[in-house]
Design a protein that fits this description.
Blueprint: E1 9-11, E2 16-20, E3 25-29, E4 33-37, E5 42-47, E6 53-58, E7 64-69, E8 74-78, E9 84-87, E10 100-101, E11 107-111, E12 116-121, E13 127-132, E14 136-143, E15 149-156, E16 169-174, E17 182-186, E18 197-199, E19 205-212, E20 215-222, E21 228-234, E22 242-243, E23 249-254, E24 261-266, E25 272-277, E26 281-286, E27 292-297, E28 301-305, H1 306-311
Antiparallel strand pairs: 1-28, 2-3, 3-4, 4-5, 6-7, 7-8, 8-9, 10-11, 11-12, 12-13, 14-15, 15-16, 16-17, 18-19, 19-20, 20-21, 22-23, 23-24, 24-25, 26-27, 27-28
């Protein structure tokens, strides 16, 4: 990865971190939404559009920010002023995975833990399509850099008479999402229903956590056939697995206090590059075209080069 300035930059609480490559902006979600200009190293916007914010995502051009809370309600903001451009006032779906913009920035895609996938217009409260999967949860949605390939992780709920849930499965779709362009990728029957997955920036691979009876592994499979490329023993992942913008590195959040930490792996063989101890780690965001990464916690976020984090030069401590 290209080398850039190693000067670290401390920001606000980063329960979730979002990045806009076109505008060089970072949004930190906590009690408030705080947007920072990375090049100028300063906060440019702070607002409180919703209570209990769970996630935020920039539009492709960076000018708009979609914010979702734990009840499922979504609002779209001006990234620079915090002005609410559209309040979808949707709460029936309930809590779920983060919301995402479509390739043209005109639509929003999100999933709920009630098993609903919804595509809606970004700037007016209009639902374009809705798919319901009774007895399932939509755990995660991710997409490639072009937003043309979309990965949905489905997790069946426990059925009457079952001792354990059916294993989760993955659905790979082309944009625009439709029944005619989906590919189902089954996972190992031993994969726990609370696992996590994400598609690589070039859409060629998928990384997911294999979790069975405290036997934890991180796996990488090929999107074309679902076959395993590499697998490594690890411990419990407590958040999303995150690819670097060039697909060379995977970041993960591991463990509970006092061993909680960020861990980074080389994607080619899942060998460990290093760890960054942190109390209450919550989010990882690689910045495109640079070696810098934002690490977020329930206390603060910090931007620095990955090398400086791994060497201990920059620490994630209060």
């Amino acid at each position: 990865m290209p080398r850039s300035s190693s000067n670290s930059f401390k920001m606000t609480v980063g329960f979730r971190i979002a990045y806009s490559d076109q505008q060089k902006l970072v949004a930190c979600s906590g009690g408030r939404i705080n947007v920072f200009d990375i090049e100028r190293r300063q906060k440019i916007m702070s607002c409180h559009p919703l209570s209990n914010i769970s996630a935020a995502a920039f539009s492709p051009n960076g000018k708009h920010l979609a914010v979702k809370n734990t009840s499922g309600r979504i609002v779209v903001l001006n990234s620079f002023t915090g002005e609410v451009l559209c309040d979808h006032k949707n709460q029936k779906e309930g809590e779920g995975c983060p919301v995402h913009f479509s390739p043209d920035g005109e639509m929003l895609v999100d999933g709920s833990w009630k098993g609903v996938i919804t595509v809606r217009k970004a700037f007016e409260p209009t639902i374009v399509s809705r798919e319901e999967f009774p007895g399932e949860m939509i755990l995660q949605i991710s997409h490639d850099l072009s937003r043309r390939k979309w990965l949905f992780m489905h997790s069946p709920k426990l059925k009457p008479g079952q001792n354990r849930c059916d294993p989760p499965y993955l659905i790979l779709r082309d944009w625009p999402c439709g029944e005619s362009n989906l590919q189902r990728i089954p996972l190992d029957p031993d994969v726990w229903s609370g696992s996590t997955s994400t598609i690589s920036p070039d859409a060629s691979r998928i990384c997911y956590e294999h979790n069975y009876r405290k036997d934890y592994k991180v796996c990488i499979i090929h999107t074309r056939d679902g076959k395993i490329e590499t697998i490594a023993n690890t411990d419990d992942v407590r958040g999303e697995l995150v690819w670097s913008w060039d697909g060379q590195i995977i970041g993960a959040i591991h463990g509970y206090k006092p061993e909680s930490r960020f861990t980074f792996y080389r994607s080619s063989d899942l060998s460990m590059l290093g760890e960054v101890p942190c109390e209450s780690p919550s989010s990882i965001c690689f910045l495109p075209d640079t070696d810098q990464v934002v690490l977020g916690s329930w206390h603060f976020s910090r931007l620095a080069s990955l090398e400086d984090f791994l060497s201990g030069l920059v620490k994630m401590r209060k």
